[in-house]
Amino acid sequence: MATVADIKSALENVKYPGFAKSIIEFGFVKDVQVDGSACSILLDITSSAKEVEEQLRKEISAVLSDLVENVTINIKKPQEPKQHSNSVSGKNIAPHIKNFVMVSSGKGGVGKSTTTVNLAVAAAMQGKKVGILDADIYGPNIPRMMGLQGKEVEVIGNKAKPFNAYGVDVMSMGSLMQEGQALIWRGAMIMKAIEQLLRDILWEELDILFIDMPPGTGDAQLTLAQSVPVTCGVNVTTPQHVALDDSRRSLDMFSKLHIPIGGIIENMSGFICPKCGEESDIFGMGTCEALAEQYNTQVLGNLPIEPAIREGGDAGKPVVYFQPESESAKRYMKATQKLIEYINEVSDKVENASIQPTTPPGVSACSTAGAAKSSNHSHGGGCGCH
Ligand SMILES: Nc1ncnc2c1ncn2[C@@H]1O[C@H](COP(=O)(O)OP(=O)(O)OP(=O)(O)O)[C@@H](O)[C@H]1O
Fold this sequence. Notes:
By secondary structure, this protein is an alpha/beta fold. It has helices at 4-11, 23-26, 50-64, 112-125, 142-145, 173-176, 187-199, 219-227, 241-256, 288-294, 307-315, 319-322, 327-346, and strands at residues 29-35, 38-44, 70-76, 97-104, 130-134, 154-156, 159-161, 163-165, 168-172, 206-212, 232-237, 261-272, 279-280, 299-305.
């Protein structure tokens, strides 16, 4: 029968992967116990790599196979360093903002800006210090939706002060560009614009900055992910299968950029008749559950087509603030609560501020001229009850 000394002596033949010394010489073997034909070993190693653990398990089992029948190997190792969206660039150009939520959609017109506004206002109503950065350079609708259209930006030094509406700090490319001016955005310009919106705006200390991205997966998403540690992404989609295919691309992008997925908002999920209050299925309902499961995330909420949502958007009066008793407002509040819970779970205990900022002197974004596109589509229709 093998003894502890026999086991230790066999383990002297197991080299620590990548080194000439054995795990015994390194002092990584912390405990060996033998019980008849079984033995258990406790290792405490310095690498978090999966490959190192796998190799050690294989080699230990091999050297002990003649001595004992059953081997239990327990390995203590450091936690794998967490990948952030900015892990490669190491940049964090807005360290005083605790959490960044990237609101994305696979395609345009699905209600991404509407969702951003209502989630942000709901988060402020739930006591958070919140901002919205409208980075949708192709169609910056946030000023209209927050009742800020046409307001002049206040410039202090060479930085711009965000507006405040309904308890939320807001800055939009739309407020910095001259309305109606067309501009073709190319890669480098998009990157510069996104960086300036983070660096040259006097953002206060915020708990959450919601960022309304241009639709799709392009340079803007990449730049943002490399510029700050994005806490999580929220995907907005409508329930039709064609929209879900686009959403997959958007969700794949989150994964590639190491952005945790906070959840999916299924927008225009059914229709609530303003006259009878009845909910009817128009584009399909509940189709995002399977998508959420596939990406190991959650559906934050199913938002119906409700005229009050569109009217609130057009009038600059977010439904969650002005009609808190409406079904949509309640669902936005619930979705926000779920999102905040998720943020609390994933956000590191390490303060964002402890990641060293890189702040080369920037040029004020206020000088940037461009286009403001307004794309408010109305979703009317009826449930057929009248
Ligand atoms: N659940 C809803 N019920 C009723 N109207 C809605 C709903 N969601 C969005 N809308 C309306 O649909 C239109 C498009 O919404 P929004 O601008 O938020 O979409 P988007 O995805 O941000 O579009 P873009 O790609 O142009 O930025 C707006 O008029 C908005 O008020």
